[in-house]
Amino acid sequence: MTNPGNVSRQLSMSTIVQAITTYGPISRASVSKMTGLSKQTVSEIVGQLEADGWVGTVGQTEGHVGRRAVVYEVVPDAALVASVDLGGTKVRVALCNLTGAVVAETVAPTVMTGGDAVTDQIASMIHRLTTDHNIDRSKVRSIVVGVPGVPQADGTIAYAPNVPGIETLNFPETLSTKTGVEVVVENDVNLAALGEHWMTKRGDSDDIVYLSIGTGIGAGLVIGGNLVRGSTGAAGEVGYLPFGADPFDPESLRVGALERVSATLALIDYYRDRTGKNLDVPGIFEAALTGDTAAQESLERAAKNIALAIGAITAVIDPSCIVIGGSIGARKELRELIRPALASCFPRSIPIENTLLGNHAALAGATSIALSRLHIALFTGGLKGAEINVPPPELGTFQEGAA
């Protein structure tokens, strides 16, 4: 039977940590006033947190008559989390401190063999970051990985054709064994949506869609401030919308009809079929800017199909805005083609905005989840229903640290 005293203590600690995390530097008296907890309880718990190295003094209050009060904030480097963005072509890993700031980052091409080799690669990248930056490896307490697919209850990743082999692997368990750290896996576009909502002014808007267009196509849905995963975790797999390519072609069951005409390989294949030339996606964009008709048609074809997808999404959930990112979606040339195409096929106006976090959107979302889970584990003993919302770092600070 749970000890009621322990539960009360854990709830008090989580409340105090939430106040210090959100409003620090803050005095014990202010924490008491803000939380409604007694000064004695606050003093005891803050003392314990300070002795354990989780909070520290950073000065004294100013402007008060009489004795000045010591103020506290969370010690940023008391623990770290690892945020991982696993893509079909690149893996990006960042170590972030308890304030969410990036302290170290690395990126590498995704290993072509996929499967278990990908978990080896991620573990190696995390270990190398700690070594190269003289970080005690034991400080890394949580890992969140964004994957280009749908995490399943058995740890495998479904609908992930761009990273072969992970559909048969218990991904979080395997990576956890190799790192000795708890691992959580989430869809990469879901994380990007969370990142945009958490770290930017869009946090004031609780209904947004993040549409990622790159190696694949997917959408992250934040409705009412909460991430929508759906009954099987596949909400937002818009690459499988049944238009673009023939949805009844068996290949559309593997890649997705929309993705087959709008993602990286679709642009490359279409341009090659028209010209006999091999250009990568940046090359196609550059060619379009010089007046290359085939390149322009390739981008227009993709933009029209993406406009159809945006119309379908908007008709169902009516978000406040569509945020477009990904290696292709972040290009302003594509957005300028999508807007008139959408106006031609959908009766209502919907704001289409560029990602503010670029290729770090998924990392930001992973950091928000990792920090929340870590705070709950550290300061509530995993108490059921406990919640600690970690405020994001300043956008400029995050981007500077992640550069």
TrEMBL record:
InterPro entries with a match to the protein in the record: ATPase_NBD, ROK, WH-like_DNA-bd_sf, WH_DNA-bd_sf
GO molecular function, one term: kinase activity
Keyword set, alphabetical order: Kinase, Transferase
Family statement drawn from the similarity comment of this UniProt entry: Belongs to the ROK (NagC/XylR) family.
Protein name (Swiss-Prot/TrEMBL): Sugar kinase of the NBD/HSP70 family, may contain an N-terminal HTH domain
